[in-house]
Design goal:
The structure is a homodimer of 379-residue chains. The first copy, chain A, has 379 residues and is of the alpha/beta class. Helix content of chain A is 41%, strand content 18%. Chain A folds into two domains: 260 residues, Queuine tRNA-ribosyltransferase-like (TIM Barrel), CATH 3.20.20.105; 95 residues, no CATH class.
Chain lengths: 379, 379
């Protein structure tokens, strides 16, 4: 009988790995992409849609759900799964990234971080203990520790001080939720900016804590693709092989395949969903914008290789019309397709790793999307 | 073998009737409510959603589809059904109402009406022949003749002149599309404003034309409920009993039940869809706004008597959260429910007429929604 936190590797292919992570709401095959459901809803989709496109785990944002509708309200509803009707696994972030990117008037102290709501300007305080409590209220299958996400370009002194604080906060999260006290998993986060030795130090410190998995933080904050890859390839091997590895907030299809090649198991990003709402679509032929004038009379499917409802039912001509006419249905149909593309990419990656053909799979996609991911620049 | 236009009455109960209208894309049970898909999409819903909630026929707007994406483009796609993936019956209006309510700089002549697009200000001309041609390009199952929708408060002289023009235009539509030249049905429209004798004259003139059905126009233009009902009850009996009767742009649940009681078979209105997007929901307990503060922690279904996906899956608390957080999913879940409410109302009305209990059915709903429809005032 599998228990939450069990992580079974089924195959490796170079540094790439495929396996299954057990959670309280079911198994998660890895590598996996997690659609982002910031406010308790993957924008425009219902749980039935998510099941249809083969989603296996979704993400919720602690910062947003704490502010609205409130984690205690969600707890009284029976947790996030009962509230939003998605009964598969849910991962929540710690809220740290949003506090540092979205909220106003931040004040960081040893104790935690004070901030101002982006909704109504009200003042709030997140401590390591508080974000664990919030995520327990949400009943997240995978909870993340509070960390400070160092902004891109931070100097060595700041980064060093920050990673030490992140380590102390991670230890306090674990203490606030000792192993064995529940089925919610707790993941640590490695920081260290773009200094290899600081990444090494952070990995050593965080991995010494008794966590169910480990995330790489601060690698989707504005750096170049090369810098991201360099730091990723340096750090991923420092994480324990028998625990899941999660690259937070990444990324483009090629970023994800590069991450898998470096030994990462889990990914999340708003790219497929946000781009869908902007009309930018991912297909087996590369990226395209559905607004393109030459799609006006194009009766072919958006992606002839895709099995999603959008591609099985509608032509590019109709999808273009919906988008140009600002019809609400455009957002859902585009989102269904883009997420299905990312989820199929993961299915393909898992199969390729199992067959030992991941390098060829990776190269095939690099030929379509560009090895340096430039097809996704500026997003 | 039923042919498009066949209209079989199965039962009557007072003036109320239930039957089936045959179209080229299948049978339509009456009385029926037609969800409005202005730009070729019932806002936020896909064809699968429409089938799930039991929609039997949807409406498209000729004015909008002519302007964007263009009826000739739709014809090259194989018609509106092939374009938008809804393979059930479609009714299109003639565009007249939108020209008179939405477009700019109208100029009416014997020949037709010149107008300016609300999208880009370009100038266009609708003649009776042109709107038939557009609707043939869309391949509408039910086409409407071009009419002048007389504004509420128009004087007798204007109304009299206008109804005569509407009759001449209707005759030209029939000439442009002689019976037997296709499977698209053509409905006439009775005008006459709020002058009973002019309604009588218009009904006589329009019913003398060889049409597949007859609509009552100009009864959702700002008049009081009493005025609407009075004119409806005067005019409906003047229409041939063996043809379907369509009350255009109506209305609230009680307006529709009153229409059925007066012998009307078909209805369309943006009320359930537009209200859904404004958070105003129709339930077996009456109307309610999903934003209500007391729904914050309400774990019950929106309407415990409803069988729609929204009511079977989510609580009022979650629906309120989605709406307050402006999540795209709110629009779809609310729309699914409101349309299902209207469609179930029609299912109930058909069953009640068949059983000879429509008066009780009518009274039961009047007790919930208010006999004078005041529950829907101002919409």
């Amino acid at each position: 009988m599998p228990r939450p936190g069990d992580f079974q590797l089924h195959a490796t292919d170079g540094a790439a790995r495929t396996g299954v992570l057990q959670t309280a709401h079911g198994p998660v095959p890895t590598p996996i992409f997690m659609p982002v459901g910031t406010q308790g809803s993957v924008k425009s989709l219902c749980p039935r849609d998510l099941a249809d496109i083969g989603a296996r785990i979704i993400l919720g944002n602690t910062y947003h759900l704490y502010l609205r509708p409130g984690d205690e309200l969600v707890a009284r509803r029976g947790g996030l799964h009962a509230f939003n009707g998605w009964h598969g696994p849910i991962l929540t972030d710690s809220g740290g990234f949003q506090v540092f990117s979205l909220a106003g008037l931040r004040k960081i102290s040893e104790e935690g971080v004070e901030f101002q709501s982006h909704i109504d300007g009200s003042r709030h305080f997140f401590s390591p203990e508080k974000v664990v409590s919030i995520q327990r209220n949400l009943n997240s299958d995978i909870m993340m520790v509070l960390d400070e996400c160092v902004p891109y370009g931070a100097d060595r002194a700041y980064t060093e001080k920050s990673l030490a604080l992140t380590t102390r906060w991670a230890a306090r999260c674990r203490e606030a939720y000792p192993r064995g006290s529940g089925d919610n998993l707790l993941f640590g986060i490695v920081q260290g900016g773009f200094f290899a030795d600081l990444r090494t130090r952070s990995a050593e410190e965080i991995c010494a804590l008794d966590m169910d998995g480990f995330a790489l933080g601060g690698l989707s904050v504005g750096e170049s693709k090369d810098e991201m890859l360099q730091m990723l390839r340096h750090t991923a091997p420092l994480l324990p092989a028998d625990k899941p590895r999660y690259l937070m907030g990444v990324g483009t299809p090629m970023d994800i395949l590069d991450g898998i090649a470096a030994g990462v198991d889990m990914f999340d990003c708003v790219l497929p969903t946000r781009n869908a709402r902007n009309g930018t679509m991912y297909t087996s032929q590369g990226k395209l914008n559905i607004k393109r004038a030459d799609f006006r009379e194009d009766d072919s499917a958006l992606d002839p290789e895709c099995d999603c409802y959008t591609c099985r039912t509608f032509s590019k001509a109709y999808l273009r019309h919906l988008y140009v006419a600002r019809e609400l249905l455009a957002y859902r149909l585009n989102t269904l397709h883009n997420l299905r593309f990312f989820l199929r990419l993961m299915e393909g990656a898992r199969a390729a790793i199992a067959e030992g053909t991941f390098a060829a799979f990776h190269a095939r996609h690099a030929a379509v999307f560009g090895a340096n991911g430039s097809g996704d620049s500026g997003e």
